[in-house]
Amino acid sequence: MKKPCEKHLYESKAELKAAGLKITSTRLGLLDVLKHAKKPLSIKEIARGLGKQGADLVTLYRNVESLENLGAVKQINLKGRQSYFELSRGQHHHHLICMRCGKIEDIQIKEINLNGAFLKKHGFAKITDHSMEFFGLCANCGK
Hints:
By secondary structure, the chain is an alpha+beta fold. The protein contains five helices and five strands; from the N terminus they run H-H-H-H-E-E-E-E-H-E. The protein has helices at 6-19, 25-36, 43-50, 57-70, 116-121; strands at 73-77, 83-87, 94-98, 104-107, 133-136. Strands 4-3-5 form a three-stranded mixed β-sheet, with no helix packed on it. Strands 1-2 form a two-stranded antiparallel sheet. Helix 1 packs across helix 2 (25-36) and helix 2 (25-36) packs across helix 3 (43-50). The longest helix is centred in the first third of the chain and has 14 residues, at 6-19. The termini are far apart.
């Protein structure tokens, strides 16, 4: 397994300790891979990021689930495709996904006004979470 970078090692250990989770090389490596990722990653991509001596897929799924329950990792389901994972912290964002090559880009959407009147009209009291992804073709695939 690749050794986590020093920049994130202390931070990751503190996060795991604060959450009451055991500090393991798999969890430290998993957090390090996600902290360096520029896009959401599948479990197989995370495994590749951990290197040849990384954890098996079952162990990775179990650890991702623990980190997801803690609120440190967010699962993203993209229109019938496999699940992807990214860190939960940071600015809220959405995704552009290429339907041909699978490229994923983060995007920011400034404001959508779902006020109380709108929610009441549709029989809702409040929104607790949401998911919004946009599907299309990237510049390379759209040629």
